[in-house]
């Protein structure tokens, strides 16, 4: 299991000399790249510590929901009934849909979801570097087919996110490991897409902007080369936009990808999900303190 802080970001263009870096002085770490296994292990440890108050039903699957009437009578049940595949049922005043972009909770609640396909695919993998380094820079290069990013996981391993066309993604998935590694290195190092015309136009624009607002220049660095592919780490998923028309409705709340799906370009999907959790905890804590019905 791996996690790694990064202290600098470099984003540059394959067709020109355009470059931007982020390395704010005085900031110890800009962020962290954390493997999913690390996050799930931390959550499991926390749940174990709360075992006297929280019961986890592993290998359980919800197959349906029964909703209370919008304005139930005093005799009516205020609970949502959750039907499980094994025949059991659960009751709750508030059902939280944290079940991803294809949320069954969202569908069952009748909450509309606006979707848009980007007609792009993200190819992901875990890659070993050719040599051990500090590996504390997040790299992103914009190619004609889409951005490619190399994110540090340890001194010797990095995580790849390559957004590209569906045809190219299929080609990358069919490659043997050696050819795939060569393709990744070429995508970061090759200058075949460089255009003198675009570079000249960009330089003129940069000069004009610098006259109006002088700033320090960014120093270009070269990313580390990749030596091999992590075992069974290569995968792909389609990219698109998704956003629900409502985050909350009586007796239900949506968080994470169940509520919103974004392009991995800025790497903010999971951060937005964590923000949802923090916001929901804040409001539920206030409601509980005031003695309110948590589902309303």
From TrEMBL:
Keywords, alphabetical? FAD, Flavoprotein, Membrane, Mitochondrion, Mitochondrion inner membrane, Monooxygenase, Oxidoreductase, Transit peptide, Ubiquinone biosynthesis
Q: Using the record's annotation, list all stretches that form the FAD-binding domain.
A: 82-192, 244-285
Among the entry's GO cellular component annotations, what is one?
A: mitochondrion
What's a Gene Ontology MF term here? FAD binding
Q: Which InterPro entries match?
A: FAD-bd, FAD/NAD-bd_sf, Ubi_Hdrlase_CS, UbiH/COQ6, UbiH/COQ6_monooxygenase
Q: Which cofactor does it need?
A: FAD
Could you tell me the Gene Ontology terms of the biological process aspect for this record? ubiquinone biosynthetic process
- Pfam families per the record? FAD_binding_3
Recorded hits in PANTHER family, A to Z, give: UBIQUINONE BIOSYNTHESIS MONOOXYGENASE COQ6, MITOCHONDRIAL (PTHR43876:SF7)
Q: What family does the Swiss-Prot or TrEMBL record give for this protein?
A: Belongs to the UbiH/COQ6 family.
**Name the UniProt record assigns to this protein:** FAD-binding domain-containing protein
Q: Which organism is it from?
A: Eleutherodactylus coqui
The lineage, from the top, is:
Eukaryota, Metazoa, Chordata, Craniata, Vertebrata
């Amino acid at each position: 299991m791996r996690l790694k802080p990064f202290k600098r970001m470099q984003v540059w263009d394959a067709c020109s000399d355009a470059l931007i870096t982020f390395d704010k002085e005085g900031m110890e770490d800009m962020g962290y790249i954390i493997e999913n296994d690390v996050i799930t292990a931390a959550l499991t440890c926390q749940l174990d510590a709360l075992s006297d108050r929280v019961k986890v039903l592993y290998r359980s699957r919800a197959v349906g929901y029964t909703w209370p009437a919008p304005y139930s009578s005093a005799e009516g049940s205020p609970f949502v009934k959750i039907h499980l595949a094994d025949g059991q049922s659960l009751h709750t005043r508030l059902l939280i849909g944290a079940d991803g972009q294809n949320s069954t909770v969202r569908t069952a609640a009748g909450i509309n979801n606006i979707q848009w396909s980007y007609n792009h695919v993200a190819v992901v993998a875990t890659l070993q570097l050719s040599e051990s380094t500090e590996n504390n820079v997040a790299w992103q290069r914009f190619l004609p087919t889409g951005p490619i990013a190399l994110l540090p996981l340890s001194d010797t391993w990095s995580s790849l996110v390559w957004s590209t066309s569906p045809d190219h993604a299929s080609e990358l998935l069919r490659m043997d490991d050696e050819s795939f590694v060569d393709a990744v290195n070429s995508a970061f190092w090759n200058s075949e897409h460089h255009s003198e015309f675009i570079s000249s136009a960009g330089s003129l624009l940069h000069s004009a902007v610098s006259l109006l607002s002088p700033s320090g220049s960014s120093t270009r660095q070269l990313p580390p080369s990749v030596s091999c592919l992590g075992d069974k780490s290569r995968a792909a998923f389609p990219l698109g936009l998704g956003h629900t028309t409502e985050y909350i409705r009586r007796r239900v709340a949506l968080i994470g990808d169940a509520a919103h799906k974004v392009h991995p370009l800025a790497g903010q999907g999971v951060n937005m999900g964590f923000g949802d959790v923090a916001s929901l905890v804040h409001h539920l804590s206030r409601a509980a303190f005031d003695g309110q019905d948590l589902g309303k």
